[in-house]
Amino acid sequence: MRVKTIQVAVVLALSSLLLTACGGSGDDAAALPATAYEMQLLHVSDMDSGGDLVTNSKGLSALVQKFRSEMPDHTVFLSSGDNYIPGPFFNAADDASLSAELGAPSAGRADIAILNAMGLQASAFGNHEFDLGTRTVSDLIRTTGTWVGAQFPYLSANLNFSADGNLAAVAAAANDGVTAGALRGKIAKYTVVSVGGQTIGVVGATTPTLPSITTVGGITVAPTGASAADIDALVAQIQPSVDALVARGIDKIVLLAHMQQLTIEEQLAPKLRDVDVIVAGGSNTGLYDSTDYVRPGDTNRGTYPKTFTSAKSEPVLLVNVDADYKYLGRLVLPFDAQGRVITGKLDAARNGAWASDTEGLRRAGLSAADAMPAVAAIADKIQAVISSKDGNLFGAASVYLEGDRVLVRNQETNLGNLTAEANLALARATDASTTLSFKNGGGVRSSIGTINAPPGSTSGGFKDKTAANTSAGKQAGDISQLDIEFSLRFNNGLSLLTIDAQQLKDVLEHGVADWTATSTSGRFPQVAGLRFSFDPTGAALSRIRTIVVDDPDGAGPLTEQVVYSGGAFKVPVTRTWRIVTLDFLAGGGDSYPFPAFVTANAAQVNRIDLVPTGVTKTFTTAGTEQKALADHLAAAFPRTAPYGNADGGAATDQRIVNLSVRTEILPQ
């Protein structure tokens, strides 16, 4: 059948904004318009949380290959960013065994090479692309000698690279709107992809919070100084790129938005014009339709796709899949002759989140043997490199150590407690006066443990201690170098500072200022040496109700001292404590106020970084959080006396008391 040629636009939006929902179409089939064009959108994002990237990437490659073969001339494959993150998988690519696959081995190149092999056509920038600075971004995406670089462009409509010495040369304004195949290893606001005679436009956008959560170098982020919720200002940055595509006659637009929290993309949808689909990123939110298989341990957090109405009163679809290659998003889009999505013809049997595990592949008529050979070759060699680390053991735990993104950024968890305690132990070995430990939940990247499905089940699962790896000499419950590196992927250095009572309250207020029941803000604290309660119904920066510290009075066991309760300080506000925190936070990461404390009184704060500037941080580097946790586990929780504090959820938390979940339990 002849199909009228229709230009299509896909908008990649990397940002963090909200969308307002309206219901899907209720038209019956007889009243629906004819389908003038059909396009298959395959999408991924957020390969940054750990998990089994090796197995998942191979399974996902099989799904990509199958679905692309079913619609070879009408398929586009895109990512909404966070395609890599520093960590074991990232670092393993520096091993000489990958010379044949990478040309020249170097950290991070395997992540890019896997996407190249899968045929990714464009990606938005996430925040984790910049974690090691813009020089690393340049080294990964550009062709260098025998390294081919990214065989796709990176996109962002609201980032300006002109003042960044590492990326300005590949981010020329002339790149905007050029065909993706001619922009390999380059950066643009938007591009176009030709698929079976159709022209598809792709636009990118990135969260305005970028400067406070990663390393931006000379990049300028717009809206300048905006919060994640400044939706109108963000729309003003994205809409011109959409309009430029529309001016070329392109009437089908997909927006890939890396906004960190799905509520941001949900607010973007009704404010943008001429966008048909928004592919979200950064929140790891699993959306599923009624026919989808949800992997054991995962949670259905909404409908795939969500449906909204645009500023032009046209349908806008929002999709997102969970991270780490666990799912491939598949959205087959029927368009009418005016370029509008016919929501009443969306097919749940075809669309949704397709799982990449054994059961997910089985449901797609596939098996592990169907992985793309090029992807399998890279992934298997990465596995060989990192497997050696699973036999390097440091203590044990008899319970699951909770590092799930939604939980560790929202409440106290046992892993948050454990790593904060480890940092405190290391700090006290350096400076015995150190009393308090404070870190952000966003620094905990994954749990330590395994999720076991009940016999015969394909939908349930329970959280358990780590699984045995007999080939590495690892018993169930043992905690390895690999476990620690996966969980504390950033391997921040530790910093010592002295703060007073008012500053302690200010830090805690900042940590819970943007808490909501569904928030996943990386700033949420995990602590040791203190306890506090907060009321999330209070105004931001006025939510802390009680602060209690473990007072090292020299009289034996630590005793608790109430610092703040009932709206008043119970100690002089000038009372000080020595604290340990991450160097990322000490430098103002996640917008924490520590730099302001230094400016006000540098002598009192007396910041000491346990890892000097310029020192490369590895697993064995003294003064890093990975080394701190490894040493603490080995000393305090050997295999014969494993850590056993199971995570009980917010209703049982003792250290961080959420007063919307339980009544006050702290001394007054």
Compose a concise summary of this entry:
Residues 408-596 form the 5'-Nucleotidase C-terminal domain. The protein is of the alpha/beta class.
Total strand segments = 30
**How many separate helices?**
18
Rg: 25 Å
Q: Assign the CATH architecture of the largest domain.
A: 4-Layer Sandwich
Residue windows where pLDDT falls under 50 for at least 5 positions: 1-27, 454-460
| Strand content bin | 15-25%
Rounded mean pLDDT score: 91
Ends apart, CA distance between termini: 76 Å
The major β-sheet equals: 7 strands, mixed
**What structural category characterises the helix and strand content?**
alpha/beta
Query: What global shape is seen?
Result: globular
Helical content stands at 10-25%
Q: Give me the CATH superfamily of the largest domain.
A: Metallo-dependent phosphatases
Number of domains: 2
CATH C-level label of the largest domain = Alpha Beta
Family: Belongs to the 5'-nucleotidase family.
Protein name: 5'-Nucleotidase domain protein
GO biological process, one term: nucleotide catabolic process
Pfam families: 5_nucleotid_C
